[in-house]
Design a protein that fits this description.
heterotrimer, A alpha/beta, B alpha/beta, C alpha/beta, A: alpha/beta, Rossmann fold, globular, C: alpha/beta, four-stranded parallel β-sheet, 13 helices, about 50% helix, about 15% strand, binds iron/sulfur cluster
Chain lengths: ~240, ~475, ~250
């Protein structure tokens, strides 16, 4: 259902009158910008070089970095959970958990008496309250930005917003092919979707490490409202 | 909290700031850290100047076509099922927000950081109808707990407080028992606020940038509070200053990259959250209902004037972080929620010269602000334009100054008068001279000589020397 | 050959721009600058009709008044080959005239012509004469104050340092936080005297950290500000314009 728009005409007529009386409906072409430095960042880097950049960047964003093969992914996950003393976790409802054969991993977690839950888009209450108490949230990355060390999540349905937000720790599984140089590639991708009339996720999250704040004397404190620890596990594609 | 904060009298505010050693210590060390981090982040890119140029082009194009982009934005938001309210004044905005709150019968509101809601005193309006409004940004939370101490910085609102003061506030108000370690203070706030997020009826956010092409808007944070506010409550209201918009996602990339680098020296902050409409039907979290409030509140007065560039501001506070005046007087001395160079430019525009006539003069015009602004706003030149307006259009300068300047005009225009005036200088100042300096000057010079000596004019002016030398056969 | 100037070749003609403060208070700096330019092979003239660049009025918002000063100065230097001034911020003001006149107007064209031939003293020696070692010698431990207008607005960042590095006997010490303003700011120093005082005190504390006994600068107004505060406090730091050092041959 279309939402309401209130007071627009009076407001925009005033604005228009100040900037030369354009009619707001008239289409405006964006000019060609004279410089485009964003395209030069990490230009022509191979996928392996981008992994190196990401690895280096993780050190600056207080994020633990792991690299593994698709076969060993479950072991790496188990190692990380052990290292973080994870007793419970929630994970997004994402086909890729099956593609990467992580059923074993879930089973072994249960065997080790971890409480686990898959995000259930049908049951907000249970999902949110589980996430809120969970030690860790695990998601796949939809797109990964090497320059800034950022996980991009197109949140929606199975990829719940809370999985990467409410638990104490956040673990992102990063298929190597999802790594791109920087934000430019992600925003371009979204722009293309918009241009071709496709829907975009109601919430796109760019997540860079654990939450933090410098509000107290500019001292960086890691872990404020969101996760306190973060780990990225780079995995060779399946 | 209205735009105006603190004591009415500018001079008193400045004196208070200068005398506050705690605050000045906190500001000095914060400025130093932020300056270094910004400089390192800019340098690392290698072509920072190109980024700035691009930022400037994007911002000026957008503001020049603001009507078009706001129209597009509102269409897109409505298509997605969100509601858009255009508010010409702060009161209009508050009325609408109150109405939404009352319809929802909401009692508890969780809010992420927003300057525009401070500007329009939204919290007070909501508290007036019996709501509890909880600031969830750590800095804002500290200030709210401390009897609504006003913010002194647009990015780090509690920058004027040191950790011991924060510990004491928590102790006094919230029975906090731990130390002044920032980690412990932050953990305490995390626990306190977690409960609030989960039980809030409505989430209210500001907006760093709206994206016209898709009706989205981006929130740039480190703490994750904006994510909480937009993931958990059932209703969400976003309030934006009308100029906080970019044409599309490609431009969002640039302004966000400039913002995070210039503000805190980060490549990206921990969370950039881009929201598009209310949650979709098959989603569990996210708001069911979404309202966007677009606020003018004096901004359109700036459009089409020589100050239009002030609307390009992306609120990164880089200008504040390098400003030496800000360092010595602190944010509260500006008497506005917008302090520092951008505050000195913006506050008189959003309000008026009666309230903020001193601010354009609270600058040595050193240009440090202009040099760092990521979207190339010529801040110090805008301050000079304010001064010109105050003098020539508003005629608000003092009579003595006007007379002096008229005299100046006569003298500089005429070589003869100028020569006479400068020849007189040593004689006129002789009664005041001691050794080779003047320690107590007459009239307006007094303010100078209260703290500094003035050199005594040399008996032979340079021009006399040059002329005599020429007479004697000139150069070697 | 020294730098770009060939001995015996046609001399570079320089019109000297002394600035008000230079004329009245710092005649010595002006004298030294003229002597040095001549040593370096320039023919220096002094258009006696020159007055003030108009900056005090401009920065205070009196733009009509500034216009008169600008027109006068444009006329005074109309015939000059090069205009060389000894104060970075006043030189910048001469450049700024361009923005005072209507785009495309005749006056603006004349202002552009002035801008294109006007240089700050150290900038002129390094960029136009192409000289970095002027053959000076001076015994002191010195630090250098960068003027905001000269570095940020005029864009002259390196020239003074290059010249000072080559002065024999002179030991240069970096001034911490050298990009910070000294607090002068023209009328700011009297209108906002207490803020200005904090700024100059901070600057002096940084100067003291260097343990230099000599403070150099290329902007008369900053030097008057810092120097005035230093003598008031009786600090043992001497304040000089770089021209005085660059013209020194160790015999004074
Ligand atoms: S004026 Fe420029 S530097 Fe200052 S806050 Fe705005 S964008 Fe940042």
């Amino acid at each position: 259902m279309k939402g309401k728009i209130i007071n627009r005409e009076r407001f925009l007529t005033n604005v228009s009158s100040k900037i030369g009386g354009l009619t707001p409906e008239k289409s405006i072409e964006k000019p060609e910008w004279t410089v485009n430095p964003q395209h030069n960042v990490l230009k022509d880097f191979t996928q392996d070089q981008l992994v190196d950049v990401l690895k280096e960047q993780c050190q600056h964003i207080h994020t633990d970095f792991f690299q593994t093969t698709s076969d060993r992914l479950k072991d790496t996950l188990n190692d990380v959970l052990a290292q973080y003393a994870t007793k419970s976790f929630i994970y997004s409802a994402d086909e890729r958990f099956q593609t990467y054969h992580l059923d074993d991993f879930f089973q072994s977690s249960v065997n080790e008496k971890r409480a686990i839950m898959e995000w259930d888009p049908e049951d907000r209450e249970t999902s949110v309250s589980f996430a809120e108490k969970a030690d860790a949230g695990i998601t796949f990355s939809d797109m990964t930005l090497a320059e800034s060390g950022t996980i991009v999540l197109f949140n929606g349905k199975g990829q719940g917003r809370s999985v990467s937000l409410l638990p104490r720790d956040y673990i992102a599984i990063v298929p190597k092919s999802t790594i791109v140089p920087r934000m430019t590639q992600a925003t371009q991708y979204i722009h293309e979707l918009v241009k071709t009339g496709k829907n975009i996720a109601s919430c796109v999250n760019f997540i860079t490490g654990p939450s933090n704040s410098a509000d107290i004397e500019m001292n960086l404190v890691v872990g404020v409202h969101g996760p306190i620890q973060a780990a990225y596990i780079i995995v060779e594609d399946k | 909290m209205p735009m105006h904060i603190g004591e009415k009298d500018f001079k008193k505010r400045v004196t208070k700031g200068i005398q506050d050693d705690f605050m000045r210590g906190a500001v000095r060390s914060a400025q130093e850290r932020l300056q270094n981090r910004r400089a390192a982040a800019a340098e690392e890119l290698g072509d920072w100047e190109e980024w700035r140029t691009l930022g400037q082009q994007i911002r000026s194009h957008t503001v020049e076509h603001l009507d078009y982009y706001l129209h597009q934005l509102s269409e897109k938001v409505a298509e997605l099922g969100g509601h858009v309210f255009f508010a010409e004044t702060g009161e209009e905005a508050n009325e609408y927000i109150k109405q939404v709150v009352q319809e929802k019968n909401a009692k508890k509101i969780a809010k992420s950081k927003s300057m525009v809601t401070e500007e329009i005193s939204m919290n007070e309006a909501l508290e007036g109808i019996g709501c509890e409004v909880i600031e969830t940004d750590l800095g804002e939370y500290i200030l709210q707990i401390d009897d609504h101490d006003p913010p002194s910085h647009i990015v780090a609102p509690a920058l004027h407080k040191n950790k011991e003061q924060i510990r004491d506030v928590f102790k006094e108000r919230l029975d906090y028992l731990k130390t002044e370690k920032p980690e412990e203070l932050a953990l305490f706030a995390r626990e306190k606020l977690r409960e609030e997020f989960l039980t809030a009826d409505i989430g209210i956010t500001g907006c760093n940038f709206a994206v016209a092409e898709s009706g989205s808007f981006a929130l740039v944070t480190n703490e994750g509070n904006a994510r909480m506010v937009t993931a958990l409550p059932k209703t969400q209201i976003t309030v934006m200053g009308m100029e906080r918009i970019v044409p599309g996602w490609e431009e969002l990339d640039i302004v966000v990259s400039l913002l995070t680098r210039a503000a805190v020296g980060q490549k990206l902050t921990s969370y950039i959250t881009a929201l598009t409409g209310p949650k979709q039907i098959d989603e569990a979290d996210g708001p069911e209902e979404f309202h966007l409030v677009i606020v003018d509140n004096g901004r359109s007065k700036i459009l089409g004037t020589e100050f239009q560039e002030a609307l390009h501001c992306i609120r990164c506070a880089a200008c504040i972080n390098v400003c030496p005046v800000y360092r010595h007087v602190g944010g509260h001395a500006y008497g506005s929620i917008y302090p520092g160079p951008i505050g000195a430019v913006l506050s008189p525009l959003l309000s008026d010269y009666d309230e903020y006539k001193e601010l354009p003069y609270a600058s040595s015009l050193c240009g440090a602000c202009t040099e760092v602004c990521p979207v190339k706003i010529p801040l110090h030149e805008q301050l000079i334009m304010h001064r010109r307006k105050i003098v020539e259009d508003e005629k608000k300068s003092t009579l003595a100054e006007r007379i002096a300047m008229r005299g100046f005009e006569q003298i500089v225009h005429s070589a003869n008068l100028y020569r006479t005036a400068t020849r007189m200088a040593p004689f006129l100042t002789t009664p005041f001279a001691k050794n080779n300096v003047i320690t107590k000057g007459p009239g307006p010079i007094r303010n100078w000589t209260d703290t500094r000596d003035l050199p005594r004019p040399t008996k032979e002016r340079f021009r006399d020397w040059f002329k005599n030398r020429e007479k004697q056969g000139g150069a070697v | 050959m020294i730098g770009n100037i060939q001995k015996g070749a046609l001399k570079v003609k320089v019109s000297f721009f002394i600035t008000c403060l230079g004329d009245i208070f710092y005649a010595n700096a002006g004298k030294a600058a003229v002597e040095l330019l001549e040593r370096l092979g320039c023919e220096v003239e002094f258009p006696d009709a020159q007055t003030c660049c108009g900056q005090p009025a401009y920065n205070s918002g009196y733009h009509k008044e500034t216009l008169e000063a600008a027109k006068h100065m444009i006329e005074v230097f109309e015939q000059s080959e090069y205009v060389v001034g000894i104060s970075g911020s006043c030189v910048y003001m001469l450049h700024e005239y361009v923005h005072l006149f209507k785009d495309g107007s005749n006056w603006q064209k004349r202002a552009i012509a002035l801008k294109e031939k006007t240089y700050e003293f150290s900038q002129f020696i390094v960029e136009i004469l192409g000289i970095e070692d002027v053959g000076a010698s001076y015994q002191a431990v010195a630090t250098y104050h960068t003027s905001c207008h000269m570095t940020r607005l005029l864009g002259v960042k390196e020239a003074p340092f290059k010249l000072l590095e080559n002065v024999k006997g002179l030991k240069m010490v970096d001034l911490p936080y050298r990009h910070d303003c000294c607090g002068f700011g023209g009328t700011f120093s009297v209108k906002m005297a207490n803020i200005s005082e904090q700024m100059v005190d901070e600057k002096i504390s940084h100067i003291e950290e260097t343990e230099a006994n000599l403070l150099l600068g290329a902007d008369g107004s900053c030097l008057m500000n810092i120097g005035g505060r230093i003598t008031r406090q009786g600090k043992p730091v001497e304040v000089k314009h770089i021209a005085e050092i660059l013209n020194s041959r160790g015999d004074e």
